Automatic annotation (TrEMBL):
InterPro entries: RCC1-like_dom, RCC1/BLIP-II, Reg_chr_condens, Ub_ligase/GEF_domain. The keyword Signal does not apply. It comes from the Eukaryota. Residues 45-380 form the RCC1-like domain. Gene3D superfamilies: Regulator of chromosome condensation 1/beta-lactamase-inhibitor protein II (2.130.10.30). This is E3 ubiquitin-protein like. Keywords: Repeat. RCC repeats lie at residues 62-113, 114-167, 168-220, 224-277, 278-329, 330-397, 398-433. Pfam families: WD40_RLD (PF25390).
């Protein structure tokens, strides 16, 4: 069964044996590791990324489209002009992309050969570009510092970038001052460094980056677990304290809750997990109700969202004080900050006008997506404190729907005159399957 998995096929015999030992010494554990990674990060499947002001869409065949803000060349078309409609990145012809990540003014793409391409502001490890922010790259460029690492996922935070290798090792760069991520480097060090500490010998299947912290979903013989590292303000590291962690630390609360994590999401200031049994846990800053507990309190350890007790969740996405949950039957729930209409709710105000910007303290079904009459399989929302948020909903049939802020063309749909956002989902003219 392992040989049918895409990232396992090209491995040499020695690499396969190394992975087997890393996973605990059995092929059954290797298969579980491979399947877990595919399930939680949509590798080899269509996906859409709602970045800060710009958007990336990857088809099931690995073709990449980009649109929206392009002030730093983050769309990869060789210019800095905005794009209001999805446009394929022509320079990637012949390269199959399996995963994408977007940050403020920057984009990273990962090919099926494990190579990383980056463009936009900053240099992502390109030593000839020097300090961060000085140069712009307007077409996809191979990240030379990662060429000896077979990468399967990337995550872009505000101060750092993290990548995950096919063996389940985590590397970070552009964030090393005060040894906050387990390696003592200077803040402008653009070379990737292995994340030291507890995860050195534990395979990781998914990484998620918040504003200033990182989550890692680890696969161990005893089951799945979550580790966190970075800034602990608001309790978003999940350890019942608000202190920083220089090295990855196990979040123990999931054992207390008897919950087996299968998907992780790191918002700017809060985090979420879906359990194997379909329960959803959230923690961190609770502003605007983004934790879904009916209030705006902070939670310093993962807490089950009781309002979703009758829902079996399969996917969760987090942004800047916003959270979306997708159920097993394709229903979508959202809660948190209603700014930019990015939650997809429309509620009648006292004056009879539609108010799309109301904050939502507890999960509410997104009825506008239910009206689409297609099963939603992925949600992506803007995870940045500096940009108005927009949201994508990808359906099982490969249709992409967008709503929220669209002032830079990031929705991929035309807006009416003087309109800067769209309150209800509109189909983007692009086929992803």
């Amino acid at each position: 069964m392992c040989q049918k998995r895409a990232i396992f096929k090209p491995m040499t015999g020695e690499e396969r044996q190394d992975l087997k030992q890393r996973c605990g010494g059995s092929w059954k554990l290797v298969l579980r590791f491979l399947l877990a990674g595919e399930a939680c990060s949509r590798r080899e499947k269509a996906q859409a990324i709602a970045g800060p002001g710009h958007s990336i869409a990857v088809t099931s065949k690995g073709v990449v489209y980009s649109f929206g803000s392009n002030s730093s060349g983050q769309l990869g078309h060789g210019t800095t002009e905005e794009q209001w409609r999805p446009r394929p990145i022509s320079s990637l012809q012949g390269i199959r992309i399996i995963q994408a990540a977007a940050g403020a003014g920057r984009t990273m793409l990962i090919s099926d050969a494990g190579q990383v391409y980056a463009f936009g502001k900053d240099s992502f490890g390109e030593t000839d570009y020097g300090a961060q922010g000085i140069k712009q790259v307007t077409t996809p460029r191979l990240v030379e510092s990662l060429k000896n690492i077979f990468v399967v996922q990337a995550a872009v935070g505000n101060f750092f970038t993290a990548v995950l290798s096919r063996e389940g090792r985590v590397y970070t760069f552009s964030w090393g001052s005060e040894s906050r991520l387990g390696h003592q480097t200077d803040a402008n060090d653009l070379k990737p460094h292995l994340l030291l500490g507890a995860l050195e010998n534990i395979p990781v299947v998914q990484i998620a980056a918040g504003y200033c912290y990182l989550l890692a979903l680890a696969c161990q013989p005893g089951g799945m677990s979550v580790y966190s590292v970075g800034c602990g303000l608001g309790g978003k590291l999940g350890h019942s304290t608000r202190t920083d962690e220089k090295y990855p630390r196990l979040i123990e609360q999931f054992q207390t809750l008897n919950l087996q994590p299968v998907v992780i999401a790191a918002g700017a200031w809060h985090a979420a997990v879906v359990g194997k049994d379909g329960r959803v846990c959230t923690w961190g800053w609770g502003r605007y109700g983004c934790l879904g507990h009916g209030n705006e309190d902070c939670e310093s350890v993962p807490k089950v969202v009781e309002a979703l007790s009758e829902v079996k969740a399969v996917h969760v996405a987090t942004g800047d004080y916003t959270t979306f949950v997708v159920s097993e039957d394709g229903d979508v729930y959202s809660f948190g900050c209603g700014e930019s209409s990015s939650l997809g709710h429309s509620t009648g105000g006292l004056d009879g006008q539609v108010n799309r910007h109301t904050n939502v303290l507890s999960p509410e079904i997104v009825t506008s997506l239910k009206q689409v009459k297609e099963r939603v399989v992925q949600i992506s929302l803007t995870n940045s404190i500096y940009w108005n948020a927009h949201t994508f909903a990808l359906t099982e049939s490969g249709n992409l729907f967008a709503f929220g802020a669209g002032d830079k063309g990031q929705l991929g749909v035309e807006l009416d005159a003087n309109q800067t956002e769209r309150g209800k989902p509109e189909r983007v003219d692009i086929e992803l399957n």
